[in-house]
Design brief:
This protein is an alpha+beta fold and about 120 residues long. The chain has 2 helices and 5 strands; from the N terminus they run H-E-E-E-H-E-E. The chain has 2 domains: about 40 residues; about 70 residues, OB fold (Dihydrolipoamide Acetyltransferase, E2P) (Beta Barrel). A 5-stranded antiparallel β-sheet has the order 3-2-1-4-5. Keywords: Membrane, Transmembrane, Transmembrane helix.
């Protein structure tokens, strides 16, 4: 009768564990890529719309970490005349130029922000 030592267990378990971690990380990467392609395709198939809207709120989200790898993602929520709201990701320049309370014409395609033209006061 042979008794398995802790070293033998680790030699058996470690490759299985590392393989499972590799498959999990690879699966998450593939899922993210497929989801991004699906969103891109859905936006491309959506009509380009322009509608009267009001800027109701703005927010940022920080992704990544450390001193050089963090990045800001900017979002603006628009409210249409019907009362429906839509939050769209915008670039930093647009985020800085939009002010809560602005009223104008919002151009978008699916979840893709295309532009906002303010109505004159």
């Amino acid at each position: 009768m042979m008794v398995e030592t802790q070293g033998d267990f680790m030699l058996t378990f470690a490759p299985i564990f590392m393989g499972a971690i590799f498959i999990l990380v690879f699966g998450i990467i593939i899922f993210t890529i497929i989801k991004s392609i699906g969103t891109w395709s859905k936006n491309n198939q959506s009509p380009r719309l322009t509608s009267n809207a009001k800027v109701v709120t703005k927010r940022t989200s920080v992704r990544g970490g450390g001193e050089t790898h963090a990045r800001n993602i900017y979002y603006v929520t628009f409210e249409f005349d019907s009362g429906d709201r839509l939050e769209l990701q915008v670039d930093g320049r647009e985020y800085g130029q939009l002010v809560e309370g602005d009223d104008g014409d919002l151009s978008f395609q699916g979840t893709r922000y295309l532009g906002f033209t303010r109505h004159p006061l």
